[in-house]
Fold this protein.
Amino acid sequence: AAMSGRKESRSVCGCCSYKEPEAEKDPAPPLSPKEGDRRCTDILCLLLFIIFFAGMIGLAGLALQNGDYKRVLNGVDYRGCICGTPSKLMNDGSCTEVEKGSAGSFVPGGSSMFGVPLAVPSSPDLSASTVVVCAPACPAAPVSSGPFEGVQLACYDNSSQTVFGTGATYSEQLDSLDSCPGTIFATTAPARSIAGYCLPKSAVNSNMTGLQMAVDKAVGAGTWASAVASLSQAWPAMLGLGFGALLISFVYLYFVQFCAGILTAVAIIGFGASLIAGGAFFILKANAIADSYDNVADSYSQDTNWQMSFYGGIALEVVAALYICIIVFMWRRIFLAVGLIQHAGKALRDVWGVVFLPVFFVPLTLAIAALWCATTVLLFSLGEIKSVDVPGVPSGTLRTFVVDDTIRYTLFVHLFGLFWATQFVQAFSELVIAFATTHWFFSPTVDGKRQIIPNTTLFACRTVLRYHVGTAAFGSAIIAIIRTLRAIFVYIYDKIRRGNKDSTFLRAVGCLCWCCFWCLDCCMRYVNRNAYVMVALSKQSFCPSTVMAFSYIARNFLRVGALTGMSTVFLFIGKLFVAGITTAIGFAVFTMVPMYADETSADYVASPFWPCLVIFGVSYTIGSLFMSVYAIAIDAMLMCYLYNEDWGFVDSESSAAIADLNSKASKEGSSSGAEYRDRGSDEVGERVPVAASDGRPTYS
């Protein structure tokens, strides 16, 4: 049936039917004043979003009113005293917080130290229960020899004051605490203060510092002290290079439109050559192994190294042959993908405002995460200090901070709120980019210049705020649900694994489930991005737009596959380009500029490795943010092309983008998008022109 004869079906939130485009009306680019009436989409989802976060605000207010962050951040000792907070011991041995200067009050040390109470210090049992002890500082002078090497003794008196033992041997430290009026504890030393808690410096005493031990072994002793010193001296240059990464990202986005074809050729040829060269290398290695057997018939065939080299080389050559066949079969689609990438670069050049969106939305996301962390700490502090009978603890009673199940379950809802809020910000930015780039794609060209509306990015933001905030809430809710389910799975899996540490089957099931959640998350984020483009094109809600996007992806999977492969290469090269150039500049600054390279300078950087490592991580993140804008623009180019190919809204005379892309996609090299249209060129079928009522060709 011709397009003019199609029936309409309206959609609401949760319904997957969609309203087909109308051929009778004059088409116009998205955001154009002539595009027709838009309606608010997914209103129910928007209401749920508002209600949910109103509840989250109420929860945060409750936590702020009743919580005490010092319980979590400062730590609670075995008596129930909050470290660093004015306290008073009660008659039953418990501890309560009081006003500073109150009668009988004292202030415990501000650092939380883990120690083992010694019932008989002369014959210590270090396997007893570990408790928290408040200390004025972390232990730094352990026993240096004997069976108790790495242990430091401490006296914790009735006023919750800590005095450390002194001496190189256990007996010397015990003698120095001979007049201790309280309990003697054994702790590990030396320790460093991390977020108010004393944690051992040596990985021998704690698995928590295994990463530090590995880095120290790889880079050299004293690495952490050198890292802190170097970072503290280099931070002004690091901050400047962060802005430099922004500039390099802009430069890459601008020039990639001119060199997309070259990068494609290099990537395709390089990957194929590496497969062929790798296969040849392993085959030659297998021949060398065979020659070493002095012509003993067939004896080398039993050699494991020969088998791995020979069959591995053959496998690589087979993969190389398949790769070449795929490239030959898909070369036209690869040209189309390159054209889409080039047009995405041109779109970002003309609609340059969308490139700055990460500059605004990333700080907003960080602010949301900071508020969430503060609320989480306050929620944890709503727990109670309860008494537990534990043998070996002074007085036999351990008062510990306990978080009940209600708060734990509430934290999962709170975690869902974090995912929903951050994904909502990302969905909003993706919708803005989708609107701006689709408007560019369908805008006519006059005298070589795109006729786009002024301030396209701001106009796109206004349109999304007015009509499609509910769609952003819907799409972000799906991602938030998936990630919350993944977090719940990790929580349950961790609890089960603690009792079955040696279960290989359990680890395999855990890895499989984790991979499934990860794949589901990636797929939904990709579908969401394309759905937002369809929202801009079709003016419909999330569900029908998702169905349309999925339909286009399924019917054109070869084109989508070619574009995804090419865009992945471009984006990865872009991230490495931004990070590599920025890090190289940083290394040159720290090793060649006298301010940082001269040992007599006050800003001397002793170890450029650590500042350069941080610069690489930060610049790679910045590059990833800007490449994500490019990724959405590329997806939008493909969806626009397929949408126009399917419905024939704009012909090649009014859009240079469609004319150029059609010349790359058509076997005949046609320059007219209206001259040939097939509904998903990856399907086997014949393209039959049908005249529409307005005189434009459509297809049955």
About this structure: Residues 438 and 640 are 7 Å apart (CA to CA). Residues 1-18, 20-27, 203-223, 667-700 have pLDDT under 50 and may be disordered. The chain has 17 helices and 15 strands.
